[in-house]
Amino acid sequence: EKPKICLRGPSTPEGGRPDPTESFSLETVGTSGVATLPQGDIRHELAISIDPGQHQFRTTKIVTITRRFNFLNTIPDRVLRVREYLPETSPEPPVVHELPPGGTQWLPFSWPVLTTESYKQKLVQFSLGTGATTDRWSGPIKIDQVADVALMIHDPRRPTWPYIARVTIRVVGASLYIALRPETPEHPPYLIDNQTDEHVVVQQEDVREPNFGVHAHRKGPFAWPDLTKKRRLQIFVRHATTDPNPATMKVTIDSIKTYKPLLVAGARGPIYVSCFPRGPLGS
């Protein structure tokens, strides 16, 4: 049987020895995997890769041990907070990780409990708030696969319209590196161009919050607030002379299409919705 090793954290101040990780072999060059290191109530996931040395060290096996999940906040002037995704009804107190602005340091992330649905699906959420219990959090995003997506985050500095961040996830060995940066304001993933005389409200289907209004003859950027839900947009049109129940239509905005007109009581005419690419990246 091939020899195996395990990892163990530092001894506690009381002199106790923490539990070790699962054992693993060092003989298979070119492999990578994950080991769980207990530390009190938290379980740290470590990424382990085994690679051959270079040149005169080619007979040496290099064992690289890193944290599995690592976050970087490159937003220049905003502190970003990240936590495991928790439904609004969850009674568990969240463990919040604070990411300093400017993108100077990768910070590790750990799930407090490795048996929750959030951990199994690798779901996290972000906030631009102050750390108060009343902070509003983004929808969940999966971080266990390569991705380059835009995410809508509530902005307390501008509550009438969200902050849009670009989330890039890359894999190195068994580690995942998740970086957030500001989305390019000139070319957002979607641009809501309201060319009507009506006030239009947009909202992702099956997502209660957030919803945002676009005034007549104005434009506003848009990104999906919940990347795990159906990517379908609900459009509400409110008119001052009608009852409070708005006219509504649901559209898919990831394909080029013109929809049937939406009739709004009291409006000057029907509302037409068209989806088409614009900008250098077809946003």
Please tell me about this protein's structure.
There is one protein chain. The chain has 283 residues and is mostly beta strands. It is built from one helix and 22 strands. The strands form seven sheets. The chain has a five-stranded mixed β-sheet, with no helix packed on it. The protein is elongated and about 80 Å long. It starts with a strand and ends in an 8-residue tail after the last strand. The model has no long low-confidence stretch (mean pLDDT 77).
Mean pLDDT: 77
- Point out poorly predicted stretches: none
Query: Which class do the helix and strand fractions yield?
Result: mainly beta
Number of separate strands: 22
The SSE string, one letter per element, is EEEEEEEEEHEEEEEEEEEEEEE
DSSP helical segment count:
1
Could you give the order of strands across the largest sheet? 9-6-14-13-12
Q: Strand content of the residues, in percent? A: 35-45%
- Sheet having the most strands: 5 strands, mixed
Distance between the termini: 56 Å
Query: What's the alpha carbon Rg, rounded to whole Å?
Result: 24 Å
Tell me roughly what share of residues is in helical segments. under 10%
